[in-house]
## 1
Amino acid sequence: MGDLLSRRVAATPKGIGIVCDWFVQEAHNATIKSTDGRTFIDFAAGIAVLNVGHRHPRVIEAVKKQLDLFTHTAYQVSPYESYVTLAEKINDLAPIEGAKKTCFFTTGGEATENAIKIAKAHTKRYGVIAFGGSFHGRTAMAVSMTGKVTPYKAELGVGSPGVYHAYYPNALHGISTQDALRSLEHICKASISPLDVAAIIFEPVQGEGGFNPAPPDFVEGLRAFCNTHGIVLIADEVQTGFARTGKTFAMEHFNTDVDIICMAKSLGGGFPISGIVGKAQIMDAPSPGGLGGTYAGSPLATAAALEVLEIIKEEKLNQRAQQLGAQLKATLQELKEQERLKEIAQVRALGSMVAVEFFKDNHPSPELTKAVQKEAMDQGLLLLTCGSYGNVIRFLYPLTIPQEQFDRALNIITQSIRKVMA
Ligand code: PMP
């Protein structure tokens, strides 16, 4: 059969860029074991999916119970209670004013695409404004909205008409809130009438783009712009949701009401589910059949998600996200200041959405960033990079990680950065 790495290269396309050169044997909470007998602390969590850890016993128990009842009926053919109960709970939790409705899908990209569809049905308009550095998925419409050309769009023949990108504020890279809001005005002067714009979609903290938190006055500016022109405001919380930022939804950090929130990833605790919650009269715009999907809101995933919501509450994961995030941020900040590491351009955090950005000679350095990632991996810690320039390390540990293991991971991080910067 040959070795697994050669088989992987021979059997699967190179377009799936893969971080690890090892293969997973098993995983529990914040630990992954590889087929070659190594153990890693998992600070990737399946790209922000496992806020409650790998195979949380309550999630596994709920899914096992569901396996003995039914695994699939297609909700739109034969509905089931867990979908409705989950929708009710999300309606209660979502920081959106007034009556709400929720529907479920499978991937984050499906959530963002369907949110746009709903906004278009509601407004009868075609245009969409997203932001540079954003990530909204890889399917046709979602990748059109994603604000990074390489590797997501270049030479892939993608790009839907009517999608425009404004600037997202990023003080470190010289973009102020005013610049960002002015770029909206510019798009609406140069490219599309605001009266043709159905939706503005933004991430309250950009995920793939570098863990960049939106300044509150920027989000207020978006709301005002949308109010003026009758545009639907969509928050993409696919990466920020379910306790990662210290709140169930990151939009709870803002005093601004949005019309729709997209969610996915950690909602399912490792089972594929995404969703959209929004103002009832907007959510009801598409006619029956306009929304849905064969696997959308799978009963295995809705059973898991109901448990995830309970775990977040009972294990106080919002508070835990605040504590762990504060500890990690302080550790990185101390390293930067005490050792005068000018390569650390910035440490930032909203709850446990913590990032460290690396510069060399005053320019973003993906090389340094990759070197830190590799050194940490050699020491048994799985880290992910992000950022428009690939020069940010983001930290996505399960919020259920035992304190001793978290402390060990922090040691690896400081040692890895020290070693690479030496
Ligand atoms: N939106 C955001 C904010 C994301 O971070 C992601 C995934 N990284 C997506 C959408 C797309 O999700 P999926 O890969 O499940 O389609």
## 2
Amino acid sequence: MSNKEPTQFPALAGVQRILAVSSCKGGVGKSTTAVNTALALSRYGLRVGLLDADIYGPSLPTLLRPQETTLFQTEEGLILPLDCQGMKVMSFGWIDPDQQRGAAILRGPMVSQVVSQLATRVAWGELDYLVIDFPPGTGDIQLTLTQQLPIDAAVIVTTPQDLSFVDVVKGIQMFDTVKVPTVAVVENMSYFECGSCKEKHRIFGEGAREKLIQQFGFEHTFELPLDPRLSKMSDDGLPMVAKLPEDPVSRIYYDIAEKVHGEINRLQQENPGIPSLSYNVGQNCELTYPDGRIVEIPPFELRYACKCAACVSEYTGEQIVKREDIDPDVYPTEILPVGQYAASVKWSDEHRSSIYPYDYLQEKFDPQP
Ligand code: ADP
């Protein structure tokens, strides 16, 4: 079982693991990989949900054809996910097929807001995996989404072109900054297997995969062929793992699912857990480490340590809010975990945007643990 921390989102309370499938560019096969890997996880008997978070170009309604696409709400106002191929699935494309065209004009912060709202307003119920098909890219949208949702691990999909290597490293680094481990890199359209000679032709050259193994010792990398059947089956709404489960290409997706599952379980077992921040009225705030050790932080000092743009200049690093500006009796009115790496605090002085990464709190208030 997972040692997952409680989440602030009730809709995700029964979700054991959240896996992001990400890519730096569109069109590399991220959605195809996400849907087939999710299907492979579900064929292993795991309970799987799949969220299409690619709001600019929702592809799940093309890749999967649920029998019933009418959406219903629970009494709590959560959207019931659709059932397809034994999975619970959701996409903007089903919420409002016309509105998706409007998504392209949403600005970055709105996109991450809309996506995380969707993730947290679907009645996922009990799931072993929620696989999220991320919007392509490694910019603010993806970073914010990674910060907002309690994601456990990422899979990065790329193609073999030389430039992609830089992109993959960027992706790994983005997830790293919010303590989300990249558990696998999938090089899609890696080779073309000739029907008659059975030789693998590496049309785009040797790619990112080799370099990742050599330079980073990255263990779990996978190659998927350029296979016209993949694209045909996707267009037909019956992905490879569903249509031809015994095919050698389907077996690669099973392999990805198995390795990802093994790696996430290993990480969860090794992971001692994350710290937590709390406050009891009239006392100090407490940063509690997973081993039970507690560091006390006076509420005033925590408030003064806020690094949001209103308190510290983003450009010069200059402290904007001075000690004398802060109510000496200020105290937290709400503390919530943010992803796996930070806590957000609302304050009695109405200040709302304090986000404290646990590493920052440790460095500032517990420099020699
Ligand atoms: P992304 O999610 O990165 O935008 P998609 O998964 O939607 O990419 O794939 C883009 C197109 O490429 C689709 O038409 C899909 O069917 C096709 N495709 C993806 N992977 C392969 C592959 N390995 N071989 C052939 N076609 C592929």
